[in-house]
Design brief:
hpI Integrase, Chain A, DNA integration, Tyrosine recombinase XerC, two-stranded antiparallel ribbon, DNA recombination, globular, DNA binding, DNA polymerase, domain 1, DNA-binding
């Protein structure tokens, strides 16, 4: 076991990530992190994975700290390393998981940016003449889906009252309700959507799928137009979660709707909603 060169295992790992449909950005990040680790290990005289010890991994992380990597960046690299080693163990390339005992550095979790009602209404107004992006904004705001999930939607994902969100980055397929506001915006977009042979729901004028970076750029532009400072696309998801929890929605229900693997992820928002008005927002409306 573990007799191949380190780079060979990285290639197998990357092939595995692609086979389970990890997003290309995620695959690139994992590859970069493990490549950085391999470069360090080779300089330390380790030529194959079986020679690597837990001390080697901890020394690598200590080096990152001395090179002024932030705790958050180091934590992300630890996630990459742990995932890599789980892959090696599960595929019987290794018997001993030397990454299992690695601990994450402590760092302050930044509070999510939660848009006020005035802010998300201003965003709507700013994008009103852009039918496609208006529909994108409405779906993100009214369902809490991830931007990658939205970019992966197909025309067949659209039902009368539900959207079928395809499996994405290890998250299983799920159905989410589509409220009146989202349905109107989506129907309006479908009326003007280019008539081209593409099954992607959101497309460019030439019929190519609308990419995540295109969506981010467009919504960032409308945030700026609306005068909303410090907001990003993912904050629409945060806003969906926070406002519905503040209105009394069950964390269990919200967790299922947004596709959180653990309810504790949803419950973390509870500490950030104390200042939100406790208004009776219906689950289907924002």
């Amino acid at each position: 076991m573990g007799s191949m060169e380190l780079e060979k295992y990285l290639d197998l790992f990357v092939d595995f990530l692609r086979s389970v449909k990890k997003a290309s950005a995620t695959v690139i990040a994992y590859r970069k992190d493990i490549n950085q680790l391999i470069d360090y290990l080779k300089k330390a005289g380790r030529s194959n994975v079986a020679e690597v010890t837990s001390d080697d991994l901890n020394n690598f992380l200590a080096l990152l700290h001395t090179e002024n990597y932030t705790p958050k960046s180091i934590s992300r690299k630890i996630n990459s390393i742990k995932t890599f080693y789980r892959f090696l163990i599960q595929n019987q390339y290794l018997e001993n998981n030397v990454a299992a005992a690695i601990t994450h550095p402590k760092f302050d979790t930044k509070a999510p940016r939660i848009l006020t009602r005035m802010e998300y209404r201003a965003l709507r107004d700013a994008a009103r003449d852009d039918v496609r992006i208006s529909a994108v904004i409405e779906l993100l705001l009214q369902t809490g889906m991830r931007i990658g999930e939205l970019a992966a939607l197909k025309t067949t994902s659209v039902g009368d009252h539900f959207l079928t969100i395809p499996a994405f980055e290890g998250h299983p397929q799920r159905d989410v309700p589509v409220n009146k506001s989202a349905k109107l915006a989506l129907d309006h977009y479908l009326e003007v959507r280019p008539k081209v042979p593409s099954d992607a729901l959101f497309i460019t004028k030439t019929g190519r799928p609308l990419l995540i970076r295109n969506i981010r750029t467009a919504i960032d532009r409308y945030f700026k137009t609306a005068g909303i400072a410090g907001a990003k696309v993912n904050d629409l998801r945060h806003t969906f979660i926070a406002h519905h929890l503040a209105a009394g929605a069950s964390p269990v229900l919200i967790s299922k709707l947004v596709g959180h693997k653990r309810i504790s992820t949803t419950e973390k928002y509870l500490e950030f909603i104390k200042d939100l008005p406790a208004e009776k927002v219906k689950l289907e409306e924002l």
